[in-house]
Amino acid sequence: MRGLDKRRWMLPILFGLAVLVSLGVWLSRDYTHGPALAAKVNFWSDRRAAAALQSGFDQADQAAALAQTARSADQWDQVVDYWTGAIATLQTVPIQSPERFFAQRKQQEYLENLAFAQQQTHQLSWPNVFPSLGSAVLNEQLRLYLSYLAALGPPDILIVGSSRALQGVDSQQLQIELQKQDYPLRVFNFSVNGATAQVLNFVLQRVLTADQLPRLVIWADGSRAFNSRRVDATFARIIGSPGYQAALAGEKPGFTDTAPSPRQPSSLNSYGFLPVPAVFEPASFYQRYPRVNGRYDAFYNPFGLTGLQLGSLRSLVGYLQSRNIDLIYVNLPLSGDYLDEYRLAIERQFQQFLQTQSQQLGFTVIDRLSQWVGQNAFFADPSHLNQTGAAVLAQQLARNPLVLQKLNQLENNS
To answer: Which of 408, 411, 332, 390 is nearest to 172 (CA)?
Structure first.
């Protein structure tokens, strides 16, 4: 009986000791993030996954807290750093871990928050490089180009033109296609909405310095940039701007120590190109916008190819040649819907004009006016290419014998 009683009172003691040993083992595990881990992460999670989740959550909490009070670009930069760290940390959750799928969903959530924080710091980080030139796109392109120059130096190829070139020639795609053919060249698109020959002549001669220019200029546009009988609204705004007066006084753009000016960024990419995914569908397009016959289009009536714009073309070609910079003019495609009888007649005049001027002044012409008549998939609207058209056109230019001939000449002369 005594042996039985002894076993009865020893059993609870042994059980208690087992519990204490188990608790000690658990407490000895290496949890570097302290008691908060149990509150946010499953107790039974793998240690590596648990640590990654906890660290990611902590960085996300820091980002969210700072975002509530952030006012300056520096503060939003810190928010960006926290979100970036949180995303990168969650990426370290092992693939085999059950927590991986949840971590990926949290990453998607954090990526949205990161995009918002980046937008805030972008708005607050616009450098003051020059007084306004009367065009929001020109002001932004100038800032971006100067920053590009600071990072990489002058591009080998500079694309210029109006909005038709801005969204119609994918500079990044052109660079990629050339590199595939062993031309290690850099390409930037410095096009501006409404840019005429007069505007481009001013920007390349008066705003930029000679050492900021490329070795080859590809001017992509159409007849509207040379219509001297139409009021040049873009250049009129430039003339009335403080930047124009600064340029006439000999000032040149450059980074200063003055505080950045808050601005709403556009969708320009780092190559100066504006990707537009929209596809031109006549039926829906003309429900929103009136169909205008070319005879009543202010871009075409009145129309004249002699005058200020022709003088600007001659001045610009002469200036580029004096700097040993080659010029290729690309006559961009127009949709068949846009090329009615009236516009087509004027475009035929312009094609002849280009041939005459190129022979007299010594520049190269690539004519793509009618190549996509009836192929609306390449257009965003009747007269502007979309992102697909811009990429395909860039591929064509990269394989064009006239372009390759110029590039080979540059290579031989370098």
So the answer is: 390
Q: What residue has token string 């001939």?
A: 405
Strands 326-331 and 364-367, by their bridges, are: parallel
Range list of H helices, 240-281: 242-248
pLDDT of residue 262: 79
277-310 pLDDT tens trace: 999 999 999 999 999 999 999 999 999 999 999 9
Element (H, E) at 385: strand 384-385
Q: Which residue's entry shows tokens 């750093």? A: 81
- Per-residue pLDDT for 21 more than 60? no
* φ, ψ of residue 248 in degrees (nearest 5): -65, -30
Q: What is the pTM of this model?
A: 0.84
Alpha-carbon gap, residue 284 to 147, rounded angstroms: 40
**Using CA atoms in the order 32, 33, 35, 41, what is the torsion angle rounded to 10 degrees?**
-110
Please report, as a single letter, which amino acid is at residue 70: A
SS3 94: coil
Work out the angle between the directed axes of helices 100-123 and 73-90 (0-180°, nearest 10): 160
Single-letter amino acid, residue 326: D
